[in-house]
Amino acid sequence: MKKIVLFAFAISIIAVSCKKEEKTETPTETQEKVSGLMIVNDSTKVNWTAYKTTEKVAVGGSFTEITLKETKKGNTPEEVLEGVSFSIPVSSLFTNNPDRDYKLKSIFFGALKEKELLSGVLNFRDNKTFLTISINDMVKQIEVASNYSGKKFTLEGKIDLVDFGAENAIEAINTACYDLHKGSDGISKTWSEVALKGSVLFE
């Protein structure tokens, strides 16, 4: 009888020890699967809005090629994107208007010192978001609004092309589009202000 009791006790100890081993393995596997955010491939987008006529009519477009470099591992967009550099080929400019695309690429960007590439860096500090942009061989840092919702991180801000010494480029595109940039008052105007919006998806 004692042998039967001891055998049953031994079996119960083995069963309990097996259950404990199963519990310790599962959390470790789960943690490895969900740790960190990753950028969805080809999800980065950059849109811009320029303005014409004295009524400030919006003209929208985008860049279809954006390269991000030096992304990091992290659990928040800020950790992943801190210090990330980006480059945008001017050739990827797109407005769904071939004539406008040609004029912007050849005339506006053609009047700048750097004709082929836009570049910059993204930084975060003191709960604020900063975009450093290089245009016309001039570098400026601007504060932009940022938001993260539904796995989508967005940035929105404005630049003044005068701050980048691009007056000649503005004048050149206004001359080339003189009649197209006339408003009801008969005045042709191209604004130096440009609104920017960028976004990237995470998974």
What features would you describe in this structure?
The radius of gyration is 28 Å and the shape is elongated. The N terminus is likely disordered. A hairpin with a 2-residue loop joins strand 7 and strand 8. Strands 3-4-6-7-8-9-10-1-2-5 form a ten-stranded antiparallel β-sheet. It is α+β, with helices and mostly antiparallel strands and 203 residues long.
Q: Could you provide a short overview of the structure?
A:
The protein has 203 residues and is of the alpha+beta class. It contains four helices and ten strands.
Secondary-structure map with pairings?
Blueprint (H helix, E strand, L loop, with lengths): L1 H33 L10 E8 L4 E7 L3 E3 L7 H5 L3 E5 L3 E2 L3 H11 L8 E9 L2 E8 L2 E12 L2 E9 L6 H10 L16 E9 L2
Antiparallel strand pairs: 1-2, 1-10, 2-5, 3-4, 4-6, 6-7, 7-8, 8-9, 9-10
